[in-house]
Amino acid sequence: MFSETIELRGHIIDSLILPKVLDQILTHGGNFRITEINVGKKRADQSFARIEVSAETGEALDALVLRLRQQGAEVVERANAQVAAAPANGVFPSDFYVTTNQQTFVRFDGKEIEVRPAMINSAIAVDRKKGTARAVKFFDVNKGDEIVVGHQGVRVVPVQRATTHTDLFQFINTTVDADEPKSAIIRGIGDELRRARAGGRKIAIVAGPAIVRTGASKHLVRLIEAGYVNRLFAGNLFAAYDVERALFGTSLGMNPDLAFARGGHENHLRAINTIREASGISAAVQQKILTGGILHACVRHEVDIVLTGGIRDEGPIPSVTTDVIEAQKVMRRKLADVSYVMLLATLQHSLAVASMLAPDVKTVCVDIDPPAVERAIEHQPLQSIGLVTDVEPFLRELADCLTDSSVRD
Fold this sequence. Notes:
Number of strands: 18
Mean pLDDT: 88
Strand order of the largest sheet: 12-18-17-16-13-14-15
Oligomer: single chain
CATH topology of the largest domain: Rossmann fold
């Protein structure tokens, strides 16, 4: 048997870090012996555990310890990180360290360097002369860049549960199913957003076409007008639906008040053409061509609009970023200073944004599909709330809560 000793520090009991570590050991064929454990006697006290981990082979032990490091475990023998040169542009060394979205440090010459930004499914490139370490994607790496390999000298600090019950996101820490009451949680989300706005923190909305198609646009507009949206992330399809509804009263040819809208199947193309002729959304607002809808409200209230394209897009509308790599770069840059994100009825866009968030970004996901909610919030285990519901009643109740309170304020 091969063995190594690891240590855990912090709120490892109430944040479920210790149970997760022990589960990982057993699930992957290892064994453990807890040689020392000190449990905090009060809620604010931190705990400590020293655990001897063993496996049948050295390779199995290395793989297991790597998993445990990603849960926040530290190896007692603190070695320097190992690096290897990238063999070509866009190619990592074969045994490169794969990052999580948790706060990460690499160790060189007895000093730790924080990896910035914290980014999931990336490698770590280091510049030892400058004393910097950064998470990089394939398109960011150049031949000869020093890339961290293996797991030695890498330390991960996972987000831990708050020591009070005042944090709604950590107190709920679950998905609220369709048949469960949601009003109290929505009011709590409203309180969080109110504090964020008062503190000058950025709030982002990731919007799906269902917002327009379900008639929820007017409620999102209310949130924008009340100052609760700083950035809007969406696809070309959402933009086309919103403009179509504003210009023709339909979305993908459907009108909420009519069983059949004459010529409606053409309207989304005519809407795109109108915006292209005006040279963009902002120009259409300024020329009073676009006089309503979500994008109109964004332009009027200086909300940053981040639109990205897909393979099935028509048009696209001007200002939509159609290059996938460039879209990733734009989205990461626009998400860097965001504190709160609401993922609303858009699975693919929600998954893309969720994979780019720092571990301390608070996330609300609303979707009628339970698996979509579970997938969207899995990367933010102590910072997320998932609500399985239609987006229209959610936005209506949230807007009522926030706009009513803003009147009282």
